[in-house]
Amino acid sequence: MLIEQQITIREATQQEDSLIAKHFYLMWQDIGVPDDAINPNWLEITLQFIEQARRDLFYKAFLAEVDSAVVGSASCQLYSGLYPNVFIPEYRKYGYIWCVYVEPSYRKQGIAKQLTSATVNYLKAIGCTRAVLNASPLGKPVYESLGFSNSNAMQLDL
């Protein structure tokens, strides 16, 4: 008999930044990035990034819990852009969603969708006009189900 588990989505605290960083590391491993391609100082680098994003870019993270155990997370912040933003915020104020991660044994239960929805709602609340993310092959159907569309971003491996 399958017992339905209660999934709780909540805001992460600053004390949980290391857990968010661990999920970020595990996400890269899951999509096939070899360990030797990841900087050994990944934890410190990620924690510094989160600290700066919290200070300057309205960073917020959300956690998914099942039976009081954290099984997933997602982060979001204002998108700082790749070039100068010359637009007024009412026209273009992008939010960026990153590190949507769910532990393997809890996948395919709608947790990533709930985490992503929490980030979208937060970005709306701070006045963002668009949410942007980079999807892994596994994540793409989740994001498409929430209304995300493919963008015109193109890339060339060098």
Any guess at the CATH architecture?
3-Layer(aba) Sandwich
What kind of sheet is the major sheet?
Answer: 5 strands, mixed
CATH class call: Alpha Beta
% residues in beta strands: 15-25%
Question: Can you describe what's shown?
Answer:
- It is a single chain.
- The protein has 158 residues and is α+β, with helices and mostly antiparallel strands.
- Helix content is 32%, strand content 22%.
- The protein has helices spanning 17-30, 42-56, 111-125, 140-145; strands at residues 7-11, 60-66, 69-78, 94-102, 130-133.
- The chain has a five-stranded mixed beta sheet with strand order 1-2-3-4-5, sandwiched between helices.
- The N and C termini lie far apart (52 Å).
Q: What key phrases describe this protein's structure?
A:
single chain; alpha+beta; Aminopeptidase; 4 helices; globular
Brief write-up:
With 158 residues, this protein is α+β, with helices and mostly antiparallel strands.
Topology summary:
Blueprint: E1 7-11, H1 17-30, H2 42-56, E2 60-66, E3 69-78, E4 94-102, H3 111-125, E5 130-133, H4 140-145
Helix pairs in contact: 1-2
